[in-house]
Amino acid sequence: MTQSNKGFFDSFGGKYVAEVLRRPLDELEVAFKEAMVDPDFIYELETIQRDYIGRETPLLFAETATRLLGGAQIYIKLEGLANTGAHKINNAIGQCLLAKRMGKKRIIAETGAGQHGVATAAACAKLGLDCTVYMGEVDVRRQQPNVAAMELYGAKVHAVTSGSRTLKDAVNEAMRDWAANPDTTHYVLGSALGPAPFPDMVREFQSVIGREVKREAAKRKLDVAAMIACVGGGSNSIGFFAPFIEDESPRLIGVEAGGIGPGIGENAVRMSGEAARDGIMHGYKSRFLLDEDGQALPTRSISAGLDYCGIGPQLAALGRKGRVEFTYARDEEALNAVKFFARNEGVLFAMESAHAGAEAIKLAPTLPKDKAIIVNMSGRGDKDVFITCPVFRREEWLSFLHAEIERLESDKDIHDAKIMGESK
Ligand SMILES: *Cc1c(COP(=O)(O)O)cnc(C)c1O
After folding, report:
1. Which one of 126, 178, 219, 316 has the lowest number of neighbouring Cβ atoms within 10 Å?
2. pLDDT band at residue 1 using 50, 70 and 90 as cut-offs
3. Which residues carry this modification: N6-(pyridoxal phosphate)lysine (predicted)?
4. Over the range 291-303, which residues count as b (16 or more CB within 10 Å of their CB) and which as e?
């Protein structure tokens, strides 16, 4: 099951949208299929992947980690070295190039934690497209560093004030905008979910990760026993797994956010959690965390990128079939993985990716030394200082923040720099 059958992955997927969105989705599907077999488009895509994103990203042998854990060889796909710091740029650039080819001048996107908004804003800046990012008002307040980055890239950030004022409301608002402006506007969806053709399209743009890994693993003659990736909506994992799905091995392991425990509202475990069920939301059928009335339940995770209430339909289907195995890592295990790989490999995992790292730490010692496991480090952890510092160095971080506030309120240098910025 490498791609959908008319938008469906077994019983999951589909295109459950209002009538007004049918035509833009159908047009998008046709344009996408044509583009992917057009050598000019592929050339343009590969050139920008190389020169702007910085592909291909390295596959690192984690030698010290391997020795310390005493089992299978651990390899880390350093996807976090991609420009803007994570895999999300692969999809943003792909979709923006496609939009340009379709003659669209305006891009909209939804964002929760802000990572997809930043990637889309950067891609639009690079490609000269107008960009509006819908973001819940609550998230705008919580995620100021990402809001600032989006604005620096020239995007307009639209604070959504409906509903719970978070990600799901931003998705609804973006869909409404698209339905009203389909001729001028393309909606860049941020993960391998939503109505068809998004799950297929996002997977294809992300599968560059898996293709590079497959080529490199063959070149180095690795005997790969398992591939491990974290799963939010599912874009980094499905892109990492894609070229291996039809093979019998390696094991493909998806790691969801175990949060602080198994209770409802304490995690984002969509494949096996207590409140996990089949449902339809945001235009597609999949596994969601829902209450008995079919409403989205609150989720919890230390990593902002893994706390969406649904999972991509292809992963849901592959999970049910057993080709992809699902497990989860708790907040604490992810934090420990951040420390472990920073200290022993000089690699700082994003909190999301650290969930995959945590599973590697558990799995490696159970496998023989001549086997390899490959972990996808979907992003780097620089963005997470506001999450990791309050945990690892609470007192120091508090006094740093107090000092920063004082400095901002009094410092003449910052004031002068601002005036200089305005005069440009
Ligand atoms: C957004 C994000 C994720 C989760 O999204 P997927 O679509 O599941 O890949 C994982 N890692 C990082 C670094 C992210 O920014």
Report:
1. 219
2. confident
3. 88
4. eeeeebbebbbbb
Query: Is the peptide bond preceding residue 250 cis, with omega within 30 degrees of 0?
Result: yes
Pocket flag, ligand 1, residue 95 (CB < 6 Å)? no
pTM listed for this prediction: 0.96
CATH assignment of the domain containing 223: 3.40.50.1100
Give the nearest ligand 1 atom to 237 CA.
9
| Domain interval for residue 367 | 53-84+207-386
pLDDT tens by residue, 161-197:
999 898 989 999 999 999 999 999 999 999 999 999 9
Residues 263 and 357 grouped into a single domain: yes
Q: Which of 230, 269, 375 to mutate to test the pocket of ligand 1 (most atoms within 8 A of CB)?
A: 230
Question: Ligand 1, atom 7: nearest CA belongs to which residue?
Answer: 235
Both tokens assigned to 275: 């409140």
Alpha carbon 415 to chain centroid distance? Answer: 36
Number of domains in the chain: 3
Q: Which residues lie below 8 Å from residue 171, measured CB to CB, with a gap of 6+?
A: 110, 134, 282
Atom 5 of ligand 1, residue of closest alpha carbon = 232
